[in-house]
Design goal:
This protein is about 50% helix and about 10% strand. It is an alpha/beta fold and about 160 residues long. Strands 2-1-3-4 form a 4-stranded parallel β-sheet, sandwiched between helices.
């Protein structure tokens, strides 16, 4: 609406672009939610508490974080607690942002017979992820591949 007020002569064009984009976003969301249905309720660990809306939208359950508090690196005791939590909850995936330590996440995942994966937390966080659509397509594709790699089968 602000664009329409700024440039009234282009209001119809702005509205058309908005409607087309909103339709693409609904279709993308519907498709990706459907892709993730077989994994609904799957427990995961995240490196940092960056993903609550993403996890909720796609039906995943966060059972803990590798980073105990924002900006504080995990100590050996906390890493061991993460491993034990993953084992007790049968969690196999640790989700890491591009800016956090893959090493710590992989150490936890390895000891829990799982896998650490880096997801794009924003557009351009990973080369080639230059649109919002590509961001979500990439992240969901990475998750599905990781779930399959650790032996989680779809029914």
């Amino acid at each position: 609406d602000a664009l329409k007020r700024t440039e009234p002569s282009a209001a119809d064009e702005f509205e058309a672009h908005y409607k087309a984009y909103a339709k693409r976003m609904r279709e993308l969301s519907d498709r990706l939610v459907e892709t993730m249905k077989p994994f609904h309720g799957t427990p995961v660990v995240t490196y940092h508490r960056t993903w609550p809306y993403f996890l909720a939208r796609f039906g995943l359950v966060s059972i803990g974080e590798v980073e105990p508090k924002p900006g504080i690196s995990p100590g050996p005791r906390h890493l061991l607690e993460c491993v034990e939590l993953m084992k007790s909850q049968n969690a196999k995936i640790v989700i890491v942002e591009t800016f956090n330590s893959l090493e710590n996440a992989q150490s936890v995942a390895d000891r829990a017979d799982g896998k650490a994966i880096v997801l794009a937390q924003e557009v351009k966080a990973i080369p080639g992820i230059d649109t919002y659509e590509k961001l979500f397509d990439y992240d969901i594709a990475q998750l599905v591949a990781a779930f399959h790699e650790v032996g989680m089968k779809t029914d």
